[in-house]
Specification:
single chain; 127 residues; mainly alpha; 5 helices
């Protein structure tokens, strides 16, 4: 707040008409018009209560946001898992040939083909 603005404010508060300048101000009145520093505001009970309630409000808002995020994340993961399992089950149910059975007209693999597959996969060779 500028000094001129402070003088106008003081003159309005005192009920004076117009601006008489700084001549009519007492030394203590000018100090009352200066803005208070943040350190002086926190010293009093009101300042400490404001700071405390502000910190409590910020902490509780952060806690609520964190809990809400965790709940939404957990729900989304469960829903995605259920959808994936349902898709896999549906795909497996669509297979008409049982696993391990041969297609019509297909011959079972020979011992030589099985040994070749074992070597390619890095398994032990047959004796």
């Amino acid at each position: 707040m500028s000094l001129l603005h402070a003088a106008r404010r003081l003159s309005e508060l005192r009920g004076l008409r117009g601006l008489r300048g700084l001549r009519g101000l007492r030394p203590g009145e000018l100090a009352k018009l200066r803005p208070k520093s943040a350190a002086r505001l926190v010293n009093g009970l009101r300042g400490r209560l404001i700071v405390t309630f502000t910190l409590v409000a910020v902490a509780s808002a952060a806690l609520v946001a964190t809990i809400g995020y965790q709940l939404v994340k957990q729900n989304l993961i469960e829903r995605t898992e259920r959808a994936a399992v349902s898709d896999v089950r549906h795909t497996l149910e669509q297979i008409s040939l049982p696993i391990g059975a041969l297609w019509p007209g297909e011959l079972p693999p020979s011992a030589e083909e099985i040994n070749e597959l074992r070597e390619q996969l890095g398994g032990p060779t047959a004796r």
